[in-house]
Amino acid sequence: MGELKDKAKGHAKEAAGSVKVAAGRATGDRKMEAEGHEQKARGEVDKAKGAVKGALGDKV
């Protein structure tokens, strides 16, 4: 079950990060854009964590 939860959390973080990046670019707010890139990266980590849990059977 943890696999799906981590993957879903990762997708949500990536989506929110993409919105921040777009908003930052549109408004010229470099800080918001950077925060968006950071959030997207955290989402990718969560998705990878979910994939590892899936491969190891949630024993991680």
From TrEMBL:
Biased composition range(s): Basic and acidic residues: 1-14, 27-49
UniProt region (Disordered), positions on chain: 1-60
Domain CsbD-like: 6-56
InterPro entries: CsbD, YjbJ_sf
The organism's place on the tree of life at top rank: Bacteria
Similarity comment text for this entry: Belongs to the UPF0337 (CsbD) family.
Name assigned to this protein: CsbD family protein
Organism from which the protein derives: Acuticoccus sediminis
